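For the sake of transparency, this paper describes our internal protein records without simplification. The record that follows is passed on verbatim for readers who wish to inspect the format:
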Amino acid sequence: MIPIGAVPLASAHLEQRTYRQQAEFQRDFAAQWGDLDRQVRTSLRLMALNGIQDPLNDVPIAAADLQVQGTNFRESLQHDGLVSRQRAVLLLLRQLIEAGRLPMLEHLRLYCPEAITPFARRLRDLVPRYQGSEYLPDPQDPRRQQLHHEDLCALSFEAGRFDAVICNEILEHVYDLPAALRSMHRVLAPGGSLLGTVPFAYGQAESTVKAVHLGREQEPELLAEPEYHGDPVQPKQGSLVYRIPGWEFLDQLREAGFEDPRIEAIHSPTYGIVGAEIPWILVFMAQRPQDPAPAG
């Protein structure tokens, strides 16, 4: 059996809050505005003194084994290739498993639209039924011989194949967000969980749309200065950002068929989870509803 946590989560230095509406988050944000920088600095000092623990199994990680490259600690606080936002996602995965919402890792049917990242390698080592993919839209791309291609907007998997889908920093790049959400909903089993991160515009309801997809044979229409983020498949070019989601993203999840869409705000020096301008890492979560029981 692959162990999850050896130490109860209750004993960890962990702040976690659930938000289903923007107003709830803004209220807490405003109440803590003057203290946010201190919280970040305090967490950094604690990690420098004590190191951190692995969010899946509580294995200690020495402070000397942490790397910090820049002041955006959401992205720059690294260990073994993983950063704060990815550790937050792994912690939530652990919580779902410990709560009985998902099978144990050795039985978990997990899909992630990433196959060659450190995050993918970590989960592939732990989850025998891990399915990863990369986006390689050219049918003649020779990398398709080694990497499984999937278009997140039109996944090829059969309905209900996976217990969980983890989607890290990808949805801002998809050309048709509603189609991608519907596609992930379809491949989840009833009761299955979707979770992950996006660059989230937590201060606004509307998404910031930067580009519009005009069709496979046409270049996207740019509505703002083009923005590209790192892409492990094409690191020199990067991946175009179509939108930065705002709180309307939760409504879009509901419209795609998910239930209880929410944002989990997590801050934990114990697990090396800390942001930059805010101390929290914001992770979205939602479930595919259980099928209704048959009548009679």
Notes: The chain is about 25% helix and 20% strand.
